[in-house]
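FAQ: What does a ligand-bound record look like?

Like this one, built around guanosine-5'-triphosphate:
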Amino acid sequence: MKVTQATFLMSNSDYQKCPHPDKPEYAFIGRSNVGKSSLINSVVNRKDLAKTSQTPGKTQLINHFIINQNWYLVDLPGYGYAKVSKVERAKFEKMIHDYLTLRPNLICTFVLVDVRHEPQKIDIDFMERLGENGIPFYIIFTKADKLSKTAVDQNVAIYTQKMLEHWEEMPQYFITSSVSGTGRDEILSTIDSLNAGFKP
Ligand code: GTP
Ligand code: MG
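The answer part, i.e. the structure of the complex:
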């Protein structure tokens, strides 16, 4: 799929105020600073469509982008950001949980994990909850440009081992870099096939 149009639509904190659910939708989620907003820009080939930052906690709302007038891409706030108060965190968690479980046109989520790190409990638990709620997901390994190919493969193998302690098989995954554009075509072609099966 070629991205010919990518437009920011709206930000909000309530899934009920999101755009009319008549188009297939995909959400990027993961720990704060893992690279969600950067990868959205890379996938749609726009520099500053989604706001990025070196400081964790940049994205604070549910952000909708419309791509090719045909599907929605959603940038969500990261989880696991230590500097947020308990009350604030509970508010974020409810916002994300409600969105993920109640948004009718959400086809699947992409859970981003930093390929440099070993498996983190917070991500494993998050995927477990997606499973419990019947929300399909793919794994996206980010920042692959920061490691050698060998190190990337090693870390993916370690991750796979860990996932197999919880799942019968390793979910489909993508290895990506927002800097080099690695993985973007694979993500787009997966979305393209999923779009074909969408019925409003
Ligand atoms: P929050 O909105 O705070 O949850 O963060 P986020 O997950 O949206 O991360 P964001 O895209 O803002 O990126 C965080 C930092 O990582 C920024 O400094 C990015 O430039 C950097 N970054 C993101 N993706 C990549 C990548 O693929 N390679 C490299 N080298 N840096 C990246
Ligand atoms: Mg962000």
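Follow-up question: can I read anything off the structure? Yes, for example: The pocket of guanosine-5'-triphosphate (ligand 1) is lined by residues 32-38, 52-54, 56-59, 77-78, 142-143, 145-146, 177-179 (CB under 6 Å).
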